[in-house]
Amino acid sequence: MNDKDQRPVYMDHAATTFMRPEVLAAMAPYFSRYFGNPSSLYRFARESRKGVEEARMQVATALGAEPEEISFTAGGSEADNWAITGVASALRKKGDHIITTAIEHHAVLHTCEALEKQGYRVTYLPVDGDGRVDPGDVRDAITDRTILVSVMTANNEIGTVQPITEIGRVAHAHGVLFHTDAVQAVGAVPIDVDALGIDLLSLSGHKFYGPKGTGALYIRRGTRIESLIHGGGQERGRRAGTENVPGIVGLGRAIELATADIEGHNRRIAAMRDRLVRGVLGSIPDTRLNGHPKQRLPNNANFSFRYVEGESILLLLDAHGICASTGSACSSASLEPSHVLLATGLPHEEAHGSLRLTLGDANTEDDVDYVLEVLPEVIGRLRQISPLTPACARMPEVE
C-alpha cells in the first residue's frame, strides 16, 4: 500500500507539523498587500498593526489570558530563554536559585546551565519511571533564595503530562514564580493559565500547524522580567525588533484552530495512538512503552526495543516511507541516548533503541496499519544482525 515512492507516512508531529491551509491563507496578504511596518503611524501601516493585535487576542483567548500578557517571539526556544533569564535577572537581588527537572527541553536545560556559570544555583529534580515529577520534590527543593520553578507541561519525547496544577500551587505557596514550557502541550492539552497557576508560559507555532519561526511568551501581569532582546520599543518595550507580521498572524490563526475542539481532536488521535501501542507491544517482544501509560499526550507513542539501535530503525523505516524520530528532533544529530529516557531509569543500551511515533491530523487508520506491518519486520531484521541479541530472543526473518 505504501512505499518510499508514495506519500510518506509522517509520524513525527512532535518535531514539526504541516501548516494548515487556513493559516497560510490568513498570512498571505501580509507578505504583499499589508507589508507596512506595524510601528509606523500612517494608515497603511495600521493594517499590519491590526493583524498583530488580532493575533495577540487569539493567543490570549486560547490560554485564558489577557492580550497585554502575550509577547511574540521567534519560537519556543526563545520564549524559554527569555522566561528563565529574564526572571533571573529581574529578581537577582531577591534570590539566585532556580528549580527545574532533568527531562526538560534543552532550551531550558542549557539556559539554566548558562546561568550556573554566572553564579546562579539550579536544582534539577528527578522523575519517576514514567517521567513524572513529584510536586513534593518541588516543595522540598524550595529555599528562601528560590525565584523560579520551571517544569514543562508535557514532555516532547515520551509525552508524559506533568502535574503542573499541583506544582504551580506549591510554587505560589512559597512566593515563587512558575514557568512552564508548553510547546508540546498547546493544542493537545486544555490550558487556562489562571486555573493552572501559571506565571509564564512558552509556546511555538510550528507544533500546532502554524508557521515555523513563531512563538509567544505569556507573562502574567505584574511579573518582573527583563528583556532578552534590546533595541526598539516593540512588544510594549519588552522584545525589540520589527515584528514578523505574517508569522504572527499565522500563529494567531493556528492556535485558534488548534484549540477550537481539543476534546474531539484528542479522541480521534488517541484512538489511533492506542491501537498503534497495542499492536507494537503485541507483535514485538522485548519492547517497552516509555512514558506514563495514561497521563500522556494523545498523539505520543515512544518505545524502546531491546538489542537494536534507534538510528538504524529510522533508516529502515525511512526506506519504507515512514517518518519517525528517536527522540527530540532538536538533538537528533547527537550520538548520545536521550537524557529523558536515562532520567526515567532506562539502561543506556535500551535508551539507544528508542523510537518516537507522534501522530497528527493527516494520519489515518491505514497509516497505523502500515506501520504495524513494517515495524515488526524492521525490528526483526535488525535483531538478526545485532551482536547484542541472545539466540533465544532472535525473531524469525520475514520472507
Structural class: alpha/beta
Helix content: 25-40%
Number of domains: 2
Based on the structure given, which CATH architecture of the largest domain is correct? Answer: 3-Layer(aba) Sandwich
Mean pLDDT score:
94
For the sheet with most strands, the description reads: 7 strands, mixed
Strand content: 5-15%
The count of β-strands is 12
Ends apart, CA distance between termini: 18 Å
Shape: globular
CATH superfamily of the largest domain: Type I PLP-dependent aspartate aminotransferase-like (Major domain)
> Helix and strand string, N-terminal first?
EHHHEHEHEHEHEHEEHHEEHEHHEH
Remind me, CATH topology of the largest domain?
Aspartate Aminotransferase, domain 2
Query: How many helix segments?
Result: 14
**CATH top-level class of the largest domain:** Alpha Beta
Alpha carbon gyration radius: 22 Å
Task: Give start-end ranges of low-pLDDT stretches.
Answer: none
Description:
- The structure is a single chain.
- With 399 residues, the chain is of the alpha/beta class.
- It folds into two domains: 9-18 and 261-393, Aspartate Aminotransferase, domain 1, CATH 3.90.1150; 21-258, 3-Layer(aba) Sandwich (Aspartate Aminotransferase, domain 2).
- The protein has 14 helices and twelve strands.
- The strands form three sheets. It has a seven-stranded mixed sheet, sandwiched between helices. A three-stranded antiparallel sheet has the order 9-10-12. Strands 1-11 form a two-stranded parallel sheet.
- Strand 5 (146-150), helix 7 (164-173) and strand 6 (177-181) form a beta-alpha-beta unit.
